[in-house]
Structures are given as structure tokens and as C-alpha cells.
């Protein structure tokens, strides 16, 4: 029995040692220290600093307790070594205590993290965020919360929370509104008092307008909203939010990922998001049943959430946005994006397609295993002995789908071709703009996830013409390209909290070509906001430092690929949408 327990203790010690080293670069030690880490007892398990002091104080004088945000462990520092040894000895083996429902493990550590570094996000306020506490009275809060029936049929269920719109419907997939489709019901009269209240709080210089759009969200404990930036061109500055019935912590993050802030929004307060915070910080609420809050006296602690109603007020903007945050501004990006010249297009593809795939080929290949079912079915449907050309074959995952076909092809990436050749596949290197094959040689052509890497329409059409040229009369070609519409696909997906990531607004940065072409950098796993973007690929290989590369994509709108295939003379056999891809099967008549 003791051998089993020793082995279990060793495994747990190793596990927590790795976690602490990865999270905080803190080392576990077997040498007795005054510093201890309490595993399975932390803010994530609902434990407060006060709980730790009350539970462990009888072992001796405690000099410091460090609670770690969003973690299930915390640190305790005793004044003298004997107290720490007594605490460690009594809790060496796992035991279920009143402090934690899970087995509690105590380990010695070389050091403890700095409270200043851990808590800095809880004591800073993003520039432009203003909180006016007690903006309304308790009576006004009760009247307003009772005036909304968000459970009726006019409400919208979104990410398991109830939403109702007034004036204009806020579209969570784009963080925008359709300015040409106002709702029949404007901002309710119950909010007419806002004008006077703005004046009473000396906010008239900041809020010079009366809102004409209102979104009411009803949150139950455990519900939240993904981080987002309200579209610049859609709304004036600032954005206002009135909180009813419960406090909540709102998470802010700067678009360059350099700063974060967790801000407590008290009930009955007015949150004003203006200036830099409005245009260059995302804001959102993590789905959870309690929040971690910072108290100047007791430090970090948890605070349970209750039902909360938020009233978000906006003023519809007429015209473009002219803010000072151009790299995150849709007005700026749309006005500074232009069609590249042939020279610029070739340069973009060389830098953000060809060079990138040479660098990521091994990692890319390791992530590409299973053929798309519809592509597999197409290849299996071909007649015995069909000659199939695979343009942009990648790691060759479609070569062996139908052994009765003669399947060959290639890629512009030399390293991907070598991967295929090592598997015994018939490949050669070429660019899809100039396929080195004779006319009318293929019974079928597949071109899967290739055309969207071409940065100009004329070049995409040229690639389709090459496909059409090498097809025999009566031959079939199947084309797949990425769609701008990604909602609820495997690419967008859902996160662990079951909040649809399509509601996330991308953190927009940009690349500017020397010819003046501006390409926004997309935030992975979010709905696309632009047609031409750079999509990050994070290279993760054993013994290789993690590196991020940017791949160019043109995102196709509905019917765009179909029209191009028709333009080059193809007879459309089938056109469909397949998990984030527009797909066309055409015939050469």
C-alpha cells in the first residue's frame, strides 16, 4: 500500500512541478523551505486568501499568502522553517479536507511569485475606461430590470444568454449593424432620464449625443460574451453600458496583445468605453459563476455572480471613422486596400505563400491526414483507369484514395513534393499558373485549397484556365477554396465554455506592402472580417522554437468561384458549401 501511495505521490509531485515551472518558472524542491505551494486549493477552486490564513494559521505565523488568478493552486510563506515543516508533514499525503473537495498536495518551492506582477491586471484601468458608480438608484434599478421581458419571442437566444435589441439589431458575428434596416421599436422612454443624468455627472463633454441603439443582455451565472471591438464605422465614440442586478468583471485586452486588464463593473454603474479603449482594446466577459476580484485589504478573492442585465447604448455613426487607430479601423483598411499589380501579387505570394510553406512543410504535413469526404467520394466515383491530376497536392493525402486511378500531380513547395516522393508518389514541382502538361490529358483534376492563395483575380482565373486546358473533353474538375463565411465551421468552432468563437472580433493588425497594398492580419479561429487577409500559422515542432508565419488568403464570397468557372468555359455540374469551403465541380464540354 505504501509503495502505491509513494508512486502516486511521486507522479503528483512531478505533475505539479511541471505546471509551476511552465506557468511561473518556479521550481519545486525536496529541501525544506518556508515557501509552500498548496495544490488543488486556489482561486479556481473557490478558495480565498482568508480561507488559507484561517486553515493554516495554527501551524505558525504566516508572512504571506499569494493567490494566483485563474489557477487551482496558491502559495503560503511561513515566518519560520519549523512551522513550514509542521504544515508539510501533516499534509504530505493526499487528504480530503474542509478546505478543498479534491485531494490537497503541499510541496516546498524555491520562491513565490510577486503579487505585484500577478495582480497588476486587477489594479489598472485601460485608457478611456470610466466607471461612474451608483449612476442609478436601487429603485431605478428595480424599475428598469422589471421593464425588460427578454424571455418573450422578441428576444434572441445567443450563446445561451437572452438578448434584445432596440433601434437597430446588433450583429454579433460582425460586431456591426445594418444601418438601412432600423427596428420598429426605438430606445424605450424609460431611458429618457439619461440626458439629465449625463449632465448631473458632468459627462456632457464626453457624451454629446443621445443613443439611438440599445442592446439588452440577460446573463445568468456562468454565461459571458466573447472579447470584441465594436466596429469603428458603425458607432460613434463612446460605447456605454449600464449594469443591473449584479457586479461582474470585464476583461480588456489591447489589440497589440501587450496589455490586459480585469475591471470590476459594479451593479448600478455606468461603464464608459471611450478613446483608446473603445477603438484599440477588446472587451468581454469570461463565462464563469464567480469572478476573481482584487481588494486592497485582503488581496485577491472570489465573488459569486448573480443574474445580471446589461444595457449597452450606442449612437449609429454616419460616414466613415477617422480615429487615430488605423491598424484596427475598418474604415481605414477598406479605403487603403487596393488591387495589387502583377508584380506586387507575385511578391505577396512569394513572401506569404511559397516561402511560408517551405518553412512549415513538416508541421503542415503532420496536421493533414484524412481526405475530405466529398473529395474522396468524387475520386472513388471515377471510372477505372482515369488519369487524375492533383494540382497543389500538399502531402499527397488524396493519392491513394482510388488505387484504380492513375494519380499524379505536384506542388509549388519543394519540401512537400519531397514528402510525397518519399511515399512513392508521382509528383513534380510547378506553379498552378503554368502547369507543365499538354492539353487534354486529364480525365479529372482536383485543386483543393490552392486558388485562395493567389492574390489577384486575374491570377486565380489564369489557374482555372490551366485546369480547363489540361482536361480532356468531358473531363471533370473539383475545386475547393476557403469561404469568407465560416460561422459554426470546424475552423471557427466553439471554445471550452461553449461560447461560439464566431462572436469573437479579431485583433486586427496589418501588413503594408511597399506598393501601398494593406493586408489585415487575421485572428485565428474567428469569423473573417475582410476578403484579403494574412492568416497566422504557429509552427510547433519538437526541439524547434515556436515561430509564427503569415499565409495569404483570398476569402471567396458565395457564387464567386462558380462565376469564375463559368467564365473560363466550364459547365457547372455541382456547386456546394462544405465546412467553410466553397466547392465547384465543373465539366469541360
Short description:
This protein is an alpha+beta fold and 589 residues long. It contains 13 helices and 28 strands.
What does this structure look like?
With 589 residues, this protein is an alpha+beta fold. It contains 13 helices and 28 strands. It has a seven-stranded antiparallel β-sheet with strand order 6-14-11-18-9-8-7. A six-stranded mixed β-sheet has the order 20-19-21-22-28-27. The termini are far apart. Mean pLDDT is 86; it is low at 92-96, 151-155 and 494-507.
Please tag this protein with its features:
single chain; 589 residues; alpha+beta; 7-stranded antiparallel sheet; 6-stranded mixed sheet; 28 strands; globular
Helix segment tally: 13
From the helix content, strand content and strand pairing, which structural class follows?
alpha+beta
Strand order of the largest sheet: 6-14-11-18-9-8-7
Amino-to-carboxy terminus distance: 78 Å
> Given the C-alpha coordinates, what overall shape results?
globular
| Beta-strand fraction estimate | 25-35%
Percent range of helical residues: 10-25%
Whole-number mean pLDDT: 86
Low-confidence stretches: 92-96, 151-155, 494-507
Write the layout of secondary structure elements.
Elements: H1 2-24, E1 28-29, E2 35-39, H2 49-56, E3 62-67, E4 73-78, H3 81-90, E5 105-109, H4 115-123, E6 129-132, H5 138-147, E7 156-158, E8 161-166, H6 194-200, E9 213-219, E10 225-228, E11 239-244, E12 248-254, E13 260-265, E14 270-273, H7 275-280, E15 281-285, E16 290-295, E17 299-304, E18 308-314, H8 330-336, H9 342-366, H10 373-381, E19 387-391, E20 406-410, H11 414-422, E21 442-448, H12 457-470, E22 471-482, E23 509-512, E24 518-521, E25 532-541, E26 544-554, H13 560-567, E27 571-577, E28 581-587
Parallel strand pairs: 19-20, 19-21, 21-22
Antiparallel strand pairs: 1-5, 2-4, 2-5, 3-4, 6-14, 7-8, 8-9, 9-18, 10-15, 11-14, 11-18, 12-13, 12-15, 16-17, 22-28, 23-24, 25-26, 27-28
Helix pairs in contact: 9-11
